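Lab manual, section 2.4: Encoding a predicted structure.

Procedure: take the sequence of the chain (167 residues), apply the prediction step described in section 2.3, and record the output as structure tokens. A sample record is shown.
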Amino acid sequence: MNISQTIQWVLHPLLASQLLANQPAHITWLVAGVGCLMVGVLVTEPTLSALGIAAVITAIASLTISQFGIQLLIWGVLSVILAIVFRGFVPRESKDLLPAAEAVVFKAIPAGGQGEVSYEGSFWSARSTVPEVAIAAGQTVQVIGRQGNTLLVAPNFEDDLFHDLPQ
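Recorded output:
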């Protein structure tokens, strides 16, 4: 390919597709695979990378398998399998790593009983995870979990422990 063909190939997508259509199947699969891999790396999307790797493997297989339908089947099966495998490598958001959410007690939570808290703009029924401690209205609590429509909260001991210490 000389320089004028390269310029035409870059500037005219239709010419590029014609040049690619006249290539052997393994070249077409290889170009498609490398293209998907490049885009997958740029946007950090494992599904696109799976499509690219499947296309590269299909390019290798197309050296011995000449039927396009079988090549397409190989690519499809490999794409699905690799996409499922690669999805497993994507880290999920861990609740353990998130900071504890805070709520404000609206209606006092008696020892061993239920009260109400204001959490993310809504009022929720709440129960303390420390049943021996009563929590007064206006105090900040940590949201630990949820059981149905009841939030499980813990008193904010850090504020209370050092609040009454002499200076």
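Check your result against the sample. The chain has two domains: 3-87, 101-155.
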